[in-house]
Amino acid sequence: MRAVIQRVHSAEVVVDSETIAAMEAGLLVYLGVGVDDDERDCEYLAQKVRFIRVFPDADKPLNRDVIDAGGSVLVVSAFATQADARKGRRPALTAAAEPQSAQRLYELFCTQLQAEGVKVQTGRFRVHMDVKSVNDGPICILLDSKKLF
Fold this sequence. Notes:
alpha/beta; 6-stranded mixed sheet; about 35% strand
C-alpha cells in the first residue's frame, strides 16, 4: 500500500461540479492499494499517517502530528500511486489491486484512522475527481507499507 501525504492549508474534492469533501488545515492523503496488500498494510500506513510529525510547533518545524495540530485528513483513492514508470512512457498499473479488494482496504484504512481519533473525510471510490489543495510548505511525503522507499 502506498500513500502520498501532503500537508495542506486546505483541500477539497469535487465530483461532477459538486464538492463532496472539504477541509481546512491537515493532511491530504492519496492512497493506492497494491495486489499483495492486506489488513497489516492498512494498519501500518494508518499508524504512520496518524503519528507522522509534519506540523510545526514553537520549537521545531516538524514536531506535531495531525491531531496535535488540530487538523484533519482527506483520503483520496489513487490507484496510480501503484504505477511503475521505470520502462517506456506509459506507466504500468499491474501492481494496483482489483477494485473490490482495493475499496475494502481503502475503507479499512479510513476506519482505522477514525478509530485513532482523526477527523477523516474521503473522496469517492472509482470516479473521476477534481482534487484542489493549497499545499503548506510544501511538505510532501511518500509512504510504502512494503518499505520499498
